[in-house]
Design brief:
alpha/beta; 389 residues; 51% helix; Rossmann fold
Length: 389
């Protein structure tokens, strides 16, 4: 209802979890806890995931599918559902001010979380903040339902150090720019039910053309990981079945979840505010921007900044609550007005109060917002997590 008691637009607020709400990378932390050299292992799979989305544009591959590739290794190292639940419950790290901000936003608007993270972690977040779990869409994970033969588990355990021995894959920005020029840019809108991380999902070049952007050593890393996931794993039934059973809510699947929520709430595209920070958020951010809603990068990386219309770099969540209030009262135009009025510290002064957050329109000051977002991302989430896609 509007302030005057009349029915207003059916506006909704939807946010990613890790980044806008929490400091964690839960899947990476689970890997670090239960797999030898698990943080390094996860980082390599994450960079491989980025390559498949950014450059190779692998058909049927969804941004965030690292969370689909890694569960067989959890099973091989005897990780149970209880292990994941207990570990997740003990380790939730909230962005400062999140609990208060969520309460304020929920008082104004129907509020939802769409997260690539696993269910146990989102349940732990809901327990901690009082957020309704029925308003969460996330990646289901069940390990206890599977029994992996020891021979298969040993095969996977042998692969873990082989993956860690490879370097982190690197590729130039031009590789992504070239892809965008072929109509498959990472900031476009995906089909409603698409399970791809890149709009359109069709590869714009051959595997050899994708590999040409890499060094010889990185090309070998991709071939090695291709061999693991798309050849050898196909011959190991439990690993294959577990991989197929996990369906990460990332990329195009995040957009599909967003569209389902908006339809159920009776919200038009212009009445959606979406907040994200990473590669898995690019399809919903880009779609909301195209719809005329509010797409906000919160301490976002390059992927989120390229897709969003607005950006906020902040040490806490208060800025999200204030922009949500502007959205509730005035839609996208209300947010733009609030952003343009946002105070900035004078040169040489230490930012205080609201000026601690840097906000703006990405098209107008891309470099300044990118620099501020990168600094805030490192400060809030740490160097290792900030470097992941």
């Amino acid at each position: 209802m509007s302030a005057g008691g009349e029915a207003g637009p059916a506006r909704i607020y939807v946010t990613d979890c890790e980044g806008p709400l929490t400091k964690n990378d839960n899947a990476q932390e689970i890997a670090a806890r239960f797999i030898p050299d698990g943080a390094e292992f996860f980082a390599r799979l994450s960079k491989y995931d980025d390559f498949l989305v950014d450059v190779a544009h692998k058909q049927g591959y969804n941004a965030g599918n690292t969370l689909r590739l890694i569960p067989p290794f959890f099973e091989a190292f005897s990780v149970s559902d209880e292990d994941v639940e207990l570990f997740s419950a003990e380790g939730v790290l909230l962005v400062p001010g999140v609990a208060k901000a969520l309460d304020q936003i929920r008082a104004l608007l129907p509020t939802f979380i769409i997260s690539t993270s696993y269910t146990p972690y989102l349940k732990a977040l809901c327990d901690l903040t009082g957020f309704p779990v029925e308003n969460v869409r996330c990646t289901e994970l069940s390990l206890d339902a599977w029994e992996m033969p020891e021979e298969e588990a040993d095969w996977l355990r042998g692969w873990a150090p082989r993956v860690c021995a490879r370097p982190l894959i690197e590729y130039p920005d031009e590789a992504m720019t070239a892809a965008e020029g072929h109509g498959a840019g990472r900031a476009g809108a995906a089909e409603p039910a698409a399970e791809c991380g890149v709009p359109g999902a069709a590869p714009w070049h051959s595997p050899d053309e994708a590999l040409a952007w890499l060094s010889a050593e990185d090309r070998e890393t991709v071939r090695e990981l291709d061999r693991l996931f798309w050849q050898e794993m196909q011959e190991h039934p439990v690993s294959l079945a577990l991989t197929e059973a996990v369906r990460p809510i990332g990329g195009g699947m995040k957009l599909a979840a967003l569209e389902e929520i908006a339809a159920a709430q009776g919200a038009a595209g212009a009445d959606v505010m979406y907040v994200g920070d990473s590669i898995t958020d690019t399809p919903p951010l880009a779609a909301v921007r195209e719809w005329g809603g509010v797409s906000l990068s919160f301490n976002g990386n390059g992927y989120a900044l390229a897709a969003a219309e607005f950006a906020a770099a902040s040490p806490d969540a208060a800025v999200a609550a204030e922009l949500a209030k502007a959205f509730a009262g005035g839609g996208r135009d209300g947010v733009e007005a609030a952003v343009r009025r946002w105070p900035r510290p004078r040169k040489g002064e230490k930012p205080t109060g609201r000026a601690r957050a840097r906000v703006g329109l990405t098209a107008e000051e891309p470099e300044a917002l990118a620099e501020a977002s990168a600094a805030a991302r490192r400060s809030v989430r740490g160097e290792r997590i900030a470097s992941l896609g």
